[in-house]
Design a protein that fits this description.
By secondary structure, this protein is of the alpha/beta class. It is built from 7 helices and 10 strands. The structure holds 1-O-phosphono-alpha-D-ribofuranose and uracil. It catalyses: uridine + phosphate = alpha-D-ribose 1-phosphate + uracil.
């Protein structure tokens, strides 16, 4: 049995197997969109941009925002690839993570393009169950969450869009979100649903790292308001606002 691999100690100081990044190639704070095609949206805010790596769903670029070295890495969709990205980014020096995703609203009054700041996640995923007890909370770093509320409000000031904060759900199965589940989440007061934050929060807590999330609302599952069709411009505006809020938090907290 002595030949069994211990993944907690394998490849620690090397180029990482899935994200293709070596220690020294990135900074201490990473913005995490789901989609690799959204990593360049982060880069639009940065100076001295470098394309660092792109392997599988994990694309990484770095650059400077107001003098701070920022890393942007895509997680892909769902908790399994998100947990891998957080684990491997931590091994190459990242200590703080801010997910900048899209998410569907579960309460009336939230519209596509609005910003949603996470205060915690209902862990409806299989990945975190492999890491911890079912009662373990999936919660952001409190200072990051508070800062995201403030920076999101500042970024959205004067616009027609709003900022909401609350508990989100993290689901594994986009197409298994049936009407009963959506109604139950809404009745529980859950603000929005996405597919990555529980893994980011749990892995971050277990490894002594910090994490937070600000998403753009892509659709509202209880009002039927969706981005399909002419609302897409609003989602892009929401993504850009969420990225700016995350960058301002990175600067404000010196992440
Ligand atoms: O747009 P991203 O950040 O990928 O986030 C949301 O979009 C995907 C589903 O459409 C899931 O990954 C969900 O969390
Ligand atoms: O889980 C998710 C994420 C985004 N949009 C949805 O409808 N569900």
């Amino acid at each position: 049995m002595s030949d069994i691999v211990d993944k907690s100690s394998v490849g620690l100081d090397a180029r990482q197997y899935h994200i293709d990044i070596a220690p020294g190639e990135v900074g201490t704070v990473a913005l995490l969109p789901g989609d690799p095609f959204r990593v360049p949206f982060v880069a639009e805010f940065l100076d001295h941009v470098k394309d660092v790596a792109h392997k599988r769903e994990h694309r990484t670029m770095t650059g400077y925002y107001k003098g701070r070295l920022i890393t942007a890495t895509s997680t892909g969709m769902g908790c399994p690839s998100t947990a891998i990205a957080v684990e491997e980014l931590a091994r190459v020096g990242v200590t703080s993570f801010i997910r900048v995703g899209s998410s569907a609203a579960l309460q009336p009054g939230v519209e596509p393009g609005d910003l949603l700041v996470s205060e915690g996640s209902l862990r409806n995923d299989g990945t975190t169950a492999a890491y911890v007890h079912h009662g373990y909370p999936a919660i952001p770093d409190l200072a990051i969450a508070q800062s995201l509320k403030e920076t999101a409000a500042a970024v959205m000031a004067g616009s027609e869009r709003s900022v909401f904060s609350g508990i989100n759900a993290t689901d594994d199965a986009f197409y298994a979100e049936g009407p009963e589940w959506i109604a139950e989440l809404s009745r529980m007061g859950i603000l929005n649903v996405e597919m990555e934050s529980s893994a980011m929060y749990v892995v971050a807590r277990l490894r002594g790292l910090r994490a937070g999330m600000v998403c753009a609302c892509s659709s509202n599952l209880v009002t039927g308001d969706s981005v399909y069709g002419d609302k897409n411009a609003r989602l892009k505006e929401g993504w850009m606002a969420s990225i700016e809020a995350a960058l301002e938090t990175a600067v404000a907290l010196e992440l």
